[in-house]
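tool=predict chain=A
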Amino acid sequence: MYRPLFQIRPAMRIWRNANRLALGTMFGTLFSCLQLDPSVQNRENLAQAVNLLTALNGGSQYYIFLSNKLNDGQARTFLKYSNGALSRIDYSGGPDNIWKARVLDGTIFALDNSTNDTVWITKDEGTTWTQVDVPGLTTDVFLHMEVCGSRLYLAKSLLATDPSAYTPGYYTDASGSSYSEWRASGVSLESIPGDLACGNDRLYASLDMTPFLSFAPAAAPESSTSATSNTAPREFSAMAARSGTLLGIHYGDPFYGAGYSSDAGANVVATGNFDAGYTFLSSTESEGALTASDAGYHVGLVYQATATCKFYRFSTGAESPAATASNTVDCGPYTDVELTSMAASGSTVAAAYRANGGSSTGILISSDGGLSFEKLDVSSVWSDQGYITSIQPIR
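tool=predict ok
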């Protein structure tokens, strides 16, 4: 019987208010179970999980967002790790489910993948929500979002690359009160965006037409430029950036592959393919299991036939997948396992997954910089269906 990572019960609210769990010892086990339950045993398990989250970035704060949309349900809950304690935040009046989220200067921006032209905003951790209808000539849901510099950038299923096109992206500051248009650089009037990424205050947009990549300073998106060269066979379906470099994952025929830029997007080189049969959940379906840290880039893929998760750590991003350190984790016995989000800091990497049609969820943890991962020894039952969609640092 599957037992998901979180056991969320109404009694948690009472327990949370009465107990702010202080941090104990440093992270001593490679993986732990996150259980939100008032029993003594579960408090001990929660203490272990808090130590785990401390290792994710000692002293940092994170939001963990949830969705039950795949089961036609509502989550209306997210979790917060702060000051050595993990708490549950139930809300009303906001989005039924949070599909993607970003945090900018303490403000949460959320997409629900259901409501056209809409961004949900809360400045008080879900106590009150504002539903913003971003003005524009086209009607569609927002699929992509990224914090870059002091702004939040948004894009729908089409992104204008010409001033005459009616499908721009939008950006706003932490207030979320006004939105300005931005356009990528490309060869046509508009393109299908694969993902947005940010590194060193440079905004990247992958596009479905050659040269597949556009970039601009975050403070001057009107100065978008196309890559000079790109040997990747198609656009990236997920990207991450750091220190003037960029790593992207693309669909292939028949393999998924990687591409890398060492000069902030000016030139992109295809670095090779991942193992046959392994799949990657793109940023149009989730946040994607790709993240950057001080140790490099981390990528997660799944072999559905055997429910095997495989993780790669690229020291620079320039390495080919075949020459990159990787390890596998048994993600069974669940069906249709998919990795939805990754976060990394220091030597700890966390990857969220969904399974069983989105009714189950969990987290895989590495404490050695992504060289090895362990599946959580899940030992509690969550009465609600749903899954983790996003792990986001509070900034």
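The chain has a mean pLDDT of 83. The helical segments are 11-18, 40-56.
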